[in-house]
Task: inverse folding
């Protein structure tokens, strides 16, 4: 495929990216440099393994540069407002499960209860405000998020059928972890197996400590806008891989564990990742994506099951079939576990959200096991222990 001359050529190297971030922001302090080894592995994987086209190289360059810019702006703001990291983080609740298990639906329904602070799409993509940030004006980050969502849907309209994309909607803090360069996000957009191995095999404590710092920063920003809350509401499937770290860095965290048959969830996830990779590579391969997805998430559920053996009281289990058919009953049980009252006001807000965001209002997500070289028996075998405990 011929390269598009409208797409800028970029030098996808660590040195260039760091230099461009410093030049763009006029700042030099990236904070704790724990992220540097991960950044190096990521750039190597993108250049040597991912088979990116011109758009893919430019997209990955921009995502990395964006993370570096945010690190610089955040550190500058924390220097001017040291009280940010001295405040107490509101106690978090986190929704954790395999992708496609109803985590997004639950997260956004719960987030309609204003007693929760939830990270929003534009906040996780750009946690640090731009200079001159004015809480009384439309945030530049919202404008950029709107443009990014539009560009992604223009590049691959199929994404609309797979995941609801809302610049102002509650979204995953895995996109905050992306700024630490310890996340599964690059592996969803590109074939980077060496980077995936690096992240899954590394100690992620520094990344989660940085996540806590980012949440304090977002908490302060929300308060500057006059918002108040009682708890943080988080969600990300990535935490399945690092449940031990999550429980250590966020002691007392309440975990809502969502469950659904991997025979359904894993092929759907592979389809999502494949459609993301189509935007940036002419060599996206369904079978390769499928193996990566099933390998990572089977490891993830195994790790969490091990960690639950000594932390069972931190978990509350929810099954997709119940979430889909009687969500408000499921949510009532969750509130009891969390230790919050499910108020009438919250119920009204949640029902309004459901009425305004019906699944049938989006296109159907179509895929088959066969096109991703999956078989039901193969997935059953790979997730045998998980299925025996939570599905069968």
Result:
């Amino acid at each position: 495929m011929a390269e598009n001359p409208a797409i800028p050529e970029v030098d996808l190297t660590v040195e260039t990216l760091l230099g461009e971030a410093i030049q763009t922001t006029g700042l030099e302090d990236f904070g704790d440099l724990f992220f540097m080894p991960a950044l190096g592995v990521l750039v190597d994987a993108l250049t040597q393994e991912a088979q990116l086209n011109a758009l893919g190289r430019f997209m990955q360059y921009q995502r990395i540069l964006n993370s570096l810019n945010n690190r610089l702006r955040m550190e500058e703001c924390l220097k001017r407002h040291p009280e940010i990291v001295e405040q107490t983080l509101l106690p978090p609740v986190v929704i954790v499960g395999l992708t496609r298990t109803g985590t997004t639906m639950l997260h956004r329904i719960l987030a309609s209860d204003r007693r929760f602070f939830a990270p929003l799409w534009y906040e996780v993509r750009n946690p640090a405000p731009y200079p001159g940030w004015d809480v009384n004006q439309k945030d530049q980050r919202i404008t950029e998020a709107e443009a990014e969502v539009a560009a992604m849907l223009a590049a691959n309209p199929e994404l609309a059928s797979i995941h609801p994309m809302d610049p102002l909607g509650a979204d995953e803090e895995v996109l905050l972890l992306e700024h630490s360069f310890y996340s599964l996000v690059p592996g969803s957009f590109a074939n980077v197996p060496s980077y995936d191995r690096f992240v899954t095999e590394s100690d992620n404590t520094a990344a989660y400590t940085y996540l806590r710092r980012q949440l304090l920063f977002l908490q302060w920003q929300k308060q500057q806008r006059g918002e108040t809350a009682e708890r943080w509401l988080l969600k990300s499937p990535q935490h399945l891989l690092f449940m031990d770290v999550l429980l250590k860095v966020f002691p007392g965290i309440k975990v809502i564990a969502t469950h659904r048959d991997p025979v359904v969830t894993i092929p759907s996830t592979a389809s999502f990742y494949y459609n993301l990779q189509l935007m940036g590579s002419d060599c996206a391969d369904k079978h390769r994506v499928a193996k990566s997805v099933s390998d990572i998430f089977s490891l993830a559920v195994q790790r969490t099951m091990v960690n639950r053996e000594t932390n069972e009281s931190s978990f509350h289990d929810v099954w997709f079939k119940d979430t889909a058919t009687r969500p408000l009953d499921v949510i009532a049980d969750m509130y009891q576990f969390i230790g919050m009252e499910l108020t009438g006001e919250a119920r009204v807000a949640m029902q309004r959200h459901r009425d305004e965001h019906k699944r049938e209002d989006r296109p159907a997500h179509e895929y088959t096991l066969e096109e991703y070289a999956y078989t039901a028996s193969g997935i059953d075998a790979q997730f045998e222990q998980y299925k025996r405990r939570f599905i069968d």
Observations:
- The domain at 91-390 is CATH 3.40.50.300 (Rossmann fold).
- The two ends are 47 Å apart (CA to CA).
- The mean pLDDT is 94.
